[in-house]
Structures are given as structure tokens and as C-alpha cells.
Amino acid sequence: MKPRLLNGCAKSVSIVEAFEAKGWDAWTCDILPSEGWHKHIQDDVLNHLNDGWDMAIFHPDCTYLANSGVHWLHRKEGRWEKMVESAQFFKRLHDADIPKIVIENPIPHRYAIEIIGRKYDQIIQPYDFGEDASKATCLWLKGVTPLQPTQFIEPHYACRCGSTYRFEYALGKYGCPNCEGEYTARLVWANQTKSGQNRLAPSATRKEDRARTYRGIAKAMAEQWG
Prior knowledge:
This protein is an alpha/beta fold. It is built from five helices and ten strands, in the order E-H-E-E-E-H-E-H-E-E-E-E-E-H-H. The chain folds into two domains: about 5-150 and about 200-225, Rossmann fold; about 155-190, no CATH class.
């Protein structure tokens, strides 16, 4: 009998495809329709935690939990209450009776950590898994070991002198061909602007596009945990 994976709060296919390739019976579950996976449960994931899973990988909404938005907690009415609700939801996923659990989220603020009950176990970057991208991602782990890097992708440098191009990592932070090292350059990967921000333009799907798990990370998860 195949081991069963629940990819909760997810409608994209990278993780389930990687685990299916390793012989798992992999399902997605989200309140929204799937982006194409044939084994999708469109429902609240809390209704399916006890459906006989061997492993679960969850991606709860980070809107009110991420440290990047902590300054809004006391500035927008109702934000604190939504944060508490989100953190309690996260904790229910973390405490589910499933042998192996992984929860993926951005770096959280301290208020969320206090409700969840503990910090994350590791922070990973897609550039350590064969992806030309930077996106710090925290993992809470139960029943699995920390994810090990598979392939480092070197960044390029973008200079503060205003140069419109990037130059090679080997030239170093003072190696800009435009200003000949007068300014200090910064490391950037392909998904970033020169200032280090995400390159995705504003759109109706920007949040979902940024939240997708990179295939290099999904492949490492399936190979190391599957």
C-alpha cells in the first residue's frame, strides 16, 4: 500500500508531483480549486486531518503571521484578532495526529511564535536547491530531519551606481564594470530587482505566485523525506 501525503493549504502541483514520482499517494487540499492536480480536496483542511495520512506538508496563510507585516497589527482595526485566529489555525495543523508534519511559512513575528508554541526548525533558500531565486522560508518539522541543500546557485551583483545590468559573482561587490568599484554592489538572484525586492509585478495572482514552492525544493523534500 502506498504511503499517503496530504499537501494542505495548497493548490499547486510541485510537491504532489514530486512525491507521486517517489511512489506516494499524494493529495492537495485547499478551499480553492486545484491548479491541475487530479487528487484535490476542495475543503477546509481541518476537516481532513484524520483521514489516514502518513505525512502532511502544510502552507497556512502568512498574511497576519509574517514578521514583514507586524507593524500593521496595532494600526489596522481587527488585524490583531485575525493574527490570533491564523496562529491558532497554524497550531492545529502543527499538533495534528500525523506521523510526519512539515509546515512552511515566511519568518514569523514573536506574537505568532508565542501562540504557535515554538520557533521554526530551519530556514531554507531556493538557491540552495538548484533555483535561481531568493526567498527565505521557515520550516517547522515533526518526524523528519532538516532538509539538506542539493545544489547552490550563485547570485549576480547589482550595483548601487545605477547600472542597468548585473555582473558576475566572481567580480565581487566592488567589481562593477560601470563605476569600477566606486559603489558597493549587492547580491541578487533572478527573481529579484536590483534593490532586492521580488520582481513579480502587481497582479490579482501575485500572492499565489509568490507562495508556490519551487520545484527544486519540492524534489529535495520528496527525495529526502519520501
